[in-house]
Design a protein that fits this description.
Length: 321
Amino acid sequence: MSGRMRAAVIVGPNQLRVDHVPIPEPELGQVRLRLEGCGVCASNLTPWAGPEWMRFPTAPGELGHEAWGVVDALGEGVHGIAVGDRVAALTYRSYAEYDLADADAVLRLPDALAGQPFPGEPLGCAMNILDRCGIAAGQTVAIIGIGFLGAILTRLATDAGARVIAISRREFARDLARSMGAAATIPVDDHSRVIEQVKAETDGALCSHVIEAVGKQWPLDLAAELTRERGRLIVAGYHQDGPRQVNMWLWNWRGLDVINAHERDPARYMQGMRQAVAAVGSGRLDPTPLYTHRFPLERLDEALDATRDRPDGFLKALVTF
């Protein structure tokens, strides 16, 4: 081992370089991973754009948090994990060839997943969101935004016996939603027209559950309009670009239950990741078609730009080593 690794450093708005930096050493209770890859998350886009609060340069590997790889070193006090184990993990500087993780934030991957990419954090998020939704057979669920998360939730909600209406601006995404089990798809071309089409699909009843998976103001507004009285509005989109306003009159009048389906407890993340491993390992969920673009570390800037611009056929980028 050379003692050094490649790691991405964001040096300014939309500016990236790859440095050679020392390979980190695991401390007490930590493991080191030789990474195979890391998913690119839409939450990276605001820091990538360089808002006023962002500080450059980033630490080597920073912003990457959807890692999987092989354990190659153990810190003191680590038990139940062995060098050579292939794992998914909660790490936070994984736009690099190596990263560290706390031992309780590492999840061994079964042989059934050998050779497959496994960005555990977003897959676990999808499972946790499903748990928060309370979806059951016979319900009608609208999902606004068919990206990686929306596509997985379409599959999971359909498997739960719900009828899913997928709402997305891109024809590619709507086609994908149908392949994941959506009973109906609606293009986002006009706010009022979407509402009328959902009414037509539900005989005027609207939806018992609406999942907003975009993270922008207008889908949040639309989600409330599509949720029936005493229905459940689930905020799955990551709203990080400023405050939001809500139509509290409508929320009050319809008596909506509003669920912020974001987690911050690492133990909860790990629970979702374990559920994702079980779902993918059993064949209940196959995310492979959703990994549409792969990039080497030196082209992380292109991966981030593609995640932002969503060219035709794009859904999820992976950086692989």
